Amino acid sequence: MKIFSFKSIITFVITILILYSGYWIFLSIQVRSEINNLSDQSNLISYDSLKITGFPYRMEAQIKNLILNNDTQEGSFSALSPLVKIDINPTNLKKFLIRTKNITSKIYIEDIFFDISMEEVRSAITTLDSRLSGIVIAISKSNISFNNLELEEIKKIYFKQETTEELNGSINFSAEGTDFIASSSGDMKLELNGEYTFEEARINGNLKLEVMKLNSNEKLFSAPIKIKDNIVTFLFIPLIDLSELLNSF
Questions:
Q1: Rounded Cα gap, residues 249 and 227, in angstroms
Q2: Which residues of the chain have pLDDT under 70?
Q3: Same domain, 131 and 183
Q4: In this structure, what are the phi and psi dihedrals at residue 231, rounded to the nearest 5 degrees?
Q5: Same domain, 61 and 126
Q6: CB 105 within 8 A of CB 79
Q7: What pLDDT was estimated at residue 97?
């Protein structure tokens, strides 16, 4: 005696496909709506067009000519990417990927000007209970101009940040180049690692900056970076106040 007939199996499969297709369409509408609302409610984000593709295995939001622009009394920031792709797994909405072939950005802070271009940018973002819990960024290479002075090309940039439910976090950053410090050592690797806490709009933490030879890992430079009540100190010299950055969100 057959428990399931061939007809019932086919009917079951078709029903599952119809339900999944409906779910994918509903989710694509939600994604489009969220991106449009983010642009409409913020003066920082604009773009030319938005397209949702990828059915049935994945969902990909393609954003053309994405522009980020933020002007304040203290300075300004702008960024442009011709095409940004956001990849979403319809069965796992807690993680999504963002990728683009190139980004150009300009940063003005008082008398300081940065002109930055990046190629082959990949980012993985993880959320937990509707909050950011982790982010990983990989950049193939970047060219930076500081006050119209062209710096050496930076390659293989990697950044990872994780945050716990108690808003404690860790940072891991690395990059390769040839001009991190005044030396004739050739190719070098820069690393920045450490932990921080975030409580009552105040960040405190301890990081360690190291520069080493790329081939031998011989240490060329090492120094602590401390964050106390949003003030970033390097070699005991206050550099940046993060309060303005926190107030912008």
A1: 19
A2: 1-4, 73-74, 179-185, 244-249
A3: no
A4: -95, 120
A5: yes
A6: yes
A7: 95
Looking at the fold, whether 111 and 51 belong to one and the same domain comes out as yes
Reported pTM: 0.82
Query: How high is the pLDDT of residue 248?
Result: 53
Give one DSSP letter per residue of 39-84, joined into a string: HHH-SSEE-SEEEEE-TTT-EEEEEEEEEEEEE-SSEEEEEEEEEE
- How many domains are contained in the chain? 2
Q: What is the pLDDT of residue 1?
A: 45
Is 230 found in the same domain as 117?
no
The answer to whether 84 and 104 have CB atoms below 8 angstroms apart is no
Cβ contact 176:214 at 8 Å:
yes
Q: Which helix (H) or strand (E) holds 31?
A: helix 6-41
Give the residue numbers spanning the domain of 77.
Answer: 1-151
Residues 105 and 3 grouped into a single domain: yes
Residue 114 burial (C-beta neighbours within 10 Å; 0-12, 13-18, 19+): middle
